[in-house]
Amino acid sequence: MNQIGDWLAERIPVSGVQLHELTNEPVPRHLKRWWFCLGGTPAYLFVVQIFTGILLAFYYQPAPETAYESVRYITEQAAFGWFLRGLHKWGATLMIAAVILHQMRVYFTAAYRRPRELNWVIGMCLLLATLLTGFTGYSLVFEQLSYWGATVAANISDAVPLVGNTAKQLLLAGDAYNARTLSRFYVLHAAVLPATIILLVGVHIALIRLHGVSELPEADADDEQPRHFNFFPDHLLTELSIGLVLMILLSALATILPATMGPRADALTTPEVIKPEWFFYVSFRWLKLFSLTFAVLSTGFILAAMFLWPWIDWALRRLTGWEDISVYIGIVATFLLVGLTVWEAIVAH
Ligand code: HEM
Q1: 5-9, 201-205, 312-316: range with lowest mean pLDDT
Q2: Is the C-beta atom of 103 inside 6 A of ligand 1?
Q3: Is 146 near ligand 1, meaning CB less than 6 Å away?
Q4: Distance from the CA of 9 to the center of ligand 1, in angstroms?
Q5: 124 CB less than 6 Å from ligand 1?
Q6: Quick check: 261 and 144 in contact, CB under 8 A?
Q7: 235 within ligand 1 shell (Cβ under 6 A)
Q8: Is 38 close to ligand 1, i.e. is its CB under 6 Å away?
Q9: How far away, in angstroms, is 223 Cα from ligand 1 center?
Q10: Burial class of residue 293 in the structure, from the number of CB atoms within 10 Å of its CB (0-12 exposed, 13-18 middle, 19+ buried)
Q11: Residue ranges of domains in the chain, CATH in brackets
């Protein structure tokens, strides 16, 4: 046993003490509460998505003639296929919800302020990559809403000045949905976007490790308690408990509300109601409220403001002298986000 230990120590020259130091970043005590450490939740769900996605890929066939039938085979015939599909679908929903909630926690605790501005920007790239992965995933089923959702999204991107038409051509592999479109969505969904997310999460976590998690001013803190605890094993145990709850929740959702199939895509029949997935309800409602050009330009403006928020917030605080201005802007934005999403969810058109 000792010989194996010596052999390994020579090849991987990291001592137990060094390993302990490397993993033992002191974690601020507010991270004992799950809503403060929500960043671990999308990371955990992403692993579930990779695992279930690889299993689904064994059966999925990305071509217009085969895609729908292969999803039907997974859902109705492959052993536990319905369960895997349910896990993947609900995993996507929970991952997107967790990313949004994590971003809200970072926003409302102003954890994006100096020196963490760049990690906010990386987080914004993660948000977009996650949403795009969701969008391309729903397009793979090749049911009516997959087809028409993708067609509508491509037409909207066409309205973006300068780059819009190129983006549409790149997305659809041509001027309109065609025989090559599905394989493009598949490569984006199963390779390009997950690889991008892995790279971004790597940099995101490295920066968090270098800065440490932001401290929280705790007015009512019980000062008898230590202000920090160890990452290993304390924080890891918190994350593992959250992971266990998520696994139970995911399995329950996939069993009680399994993934179903709508009618097969038909290029000649436009469905009466075209709706995107829930996480695009807000943009869809926005689009219906204004003209296409205004909706597209204002969405671009809002996205740019979100990317640059740490610096806009800094400028606003200097101009107004109001330290909490971001909180009030955040409350208005949250009401808008929830309001427009619920509005789109409850109306038929
Ligand atoms: C796949 C998506 C994401 C993953 C896996 C992830 C992961 C994490 C983790 C594990 C932390 C450590 C603290 C915590 O758990 O809250 C964290 C912190 C942070 N995240 Fe994310 N994140 C993601 C998306 C985002 C997004 C969308 C934003 C904002 C636009 C963002 C901005 C930040 C910032 C600024 C911190 C530092 C917070 C602090 O020090 O208190 N992240 N992230």
Answers
A1: 5-9
A2: yes
A3: no
A4: 34
A5: yes
A6: no
A7: no
A8: yes
A9: 27
A10: exposed
A11: 29-214+231-346 (1.20.810.10)
- Ligand 1 binding pocket includes 106 (Cβ within 6 Å): yes
pLDDT for 148-180, tens place per residue? 999 999 999 999 999 999 999 999 999 999 999
User: For residue range 52-90, what is the model confidence (pLDDT) as tens digits?
Assistant: 999 999 999 999 999 999 999 999 999 999 999 999 999
**Ligand 1 atom at shortest distance from the alpha carbon of 112:** 35
User: pTM of the predicted model, to two decimals?
Assistant: 0.95
Q: Is 70 in the pocket of ligand 1 (CB under 6 A)?
A: no
Tens digit of each residue's pLDDT (9 = 90 or more) over 209-254: 999 999 988 755 667 788 899 998 899 999 999 999 999 999 999 9
CA of 258 to the centre of ligand 1 (A): 30
CB of 123 within 6 A of ligand 1: the answer is yes
